[in-house]
Design goal:
8% helix; five-stranded antiparallel sheet; mainly beta; 459 residues; disordered N terminus; 4 helices
Amino acid sequence: MCVISAGADGKDIQCNTHQCHIFGGGFLKKRIPALAAAAVLALSSCSASVEELLSPPRLDGEQTEIYSALRKFTSGDIIFKYPRSGQYRSAFVVTDLDDEPTDEAIVFYEVPNVSDGSSLRMNFLDKQDGKWVSVYDFAASGSEVDSVRFEDLGSGSTMIIVTYLMQSTSDRYTSVMTYSGGVPEELMSVRNIFMDVFDTDGNGCGEMFVISNERPTGSAWSHIYGTRDGKFGEIGFTPLNSGFAGIKDVFCGITGGMHTVFVDYTFSDGTFGTDAVVAGNGYYYLSPALDPDVTMRVSNSYTPYIPCMDVDSDGEIEIPRSVPFPGFEEMPAAEQINMTEWYSLTRNATAGSLKYRSFAGTKGDYIFLFPDNWLGVTAAVSISEGTVVFNRYDNISGIMGEELLRLYGTADGGTDRFDSGEYRYLGRSDSTGYSYYAVISDSSFAPTDEELEKLFIIR
């Protein structure tokens, strides 16, 4: 189903299938007979009215000029193609590509009924004597435009990065181009399952971080592209732990004093793991401290997915791992209540050490770091009451002992019952709308108010 409407700013025609069909030799100038219009409506399966179908796209003045210049070049039917993600979501992208006084324009479009596989097109337009002119047109490398972005990547000039979706596969295709003198030049293209731009080595310039999945061998690799000695190309690559099913999160941070790209991935059984690609001394390497066993974590109704993060706000990233609480080790994975252990990387991110143990709220909106004197605890969770109870646990006897702490969570509108002085207010999560309270026991192992304020972290 395709619903055609003007853009929110009244400028660009929009369509929830990311494409809009522009008929014949430009805007429709003649009335279509009623029966023909009805046939068009039925065949298009669009919920637009006949009047909307007869109306031209509402482009602004500059877009109209660009469209007219493009129509002179194509002289046939075209379908605008809209990037599906990123900052630029219009089929018309107007920006300065070559540092000349005037802007350039890029238009993504499709030529219908093309059988040679080159229906998706990318057209460059420039101003000549104050008028837009199509200067270059070529076939793009996919079936849909995923994103377009403009980055320096250390070269001192604008690079055009376009990522395309590949038909009938989860892979994508990323092309890096420069533009000068009315001619785009493709510097490289790479098939991938992930691409983003980070300052991977802390030199103040962005690099392109790419993850590829080699299907014949089942191996996965990270590739880093940037500018070195004035030349753009691959400046590093590392293998990743193979066998993962997909990418969950990728971001750049500091660990062990080293600039590192963290890759959180998923396995087909629903578990998660993390790789760390470290930049040091001009090259990149995979941290040997991490492997799927070290970073393995699960998710169920008691245990949310937890990504790598700076859990204690010290400026360095910690890597999580889930471990069943005592007493839950032999239960099915779906019924286990898990603590989250947090590891820091040391010695140039080549070694790991356990930094914290914690409980992550079932909604994923808070983390409670255990006090240092909690050598072993077990938790009983009451989902219906939103209550988590922590008890002292004897690792030798396996017996649960005195209560240490109770945490309560309630949605907006349910906070009245916590107004008494028995409950300590911990804060409210903006992401879930839940407010949290605690009852601290009189045990010598219970955290103090001051400790709880530091250890209870709302995300």
